[in-house]
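Bug: token stream looks shifted between consecutive jobs. Job 1:
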Amino acid sequence: MNYLVLSGILFSIGAITVLVRRNAIIAFMGVELMLNATNLALVAFSRMHGGLDGQVMAFFVMVVAAAEVVIGLAIIVSIFRTRRSASVDDVSLLKH
């Protein structure tokens, strides 16, 4: 049960970080924190119920998170190169 409480706290911190911060890198770290909290909850539920389903899903979440890191950091670097800032508000500049 303690792992689920920790997972909820970590997810809340990540969600607040994404909603409050305007820097793209910090917001990206908040999303990664939310994904890790989800992994912790999946593994905790898997352990509580004695199956491997949650652990397998956590593995696939980690694979998707790794792909997200590659694409997300490429977008952030592209924004930084064009505007010399990593603000979330500058994402609309990539349309043209």
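Job 2, same session, no restart:
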Amino acid sequence: MKLYLMSLGAGLLVGIVYSLLNVHSPAPPVIALVGLLGILVGEQIVPFAKTLWSREPAVISWINQIKPHMFGHLPKGEDRSDMAATQQVGITSDS
């Protein structure tokens, strides 16, 4: 329940900021996306500050916390030779 109340409080705060900036909800797409980027980056400020406070190298926070959260797991392409072999097998088995 505490998480829901905190989320509501954060939403109210953002609503107040939007009102002060004279942006109406729902915001235009570009403004909304920039706001979401701000939320994503803002989430990383606390872990990064903790890393600096504990005097660890900033790269540790980047590798372990910020990069995986902000960018996720990037898709990996298939090896073209495997793809060609798969297609070749499909062609010969259909004949």
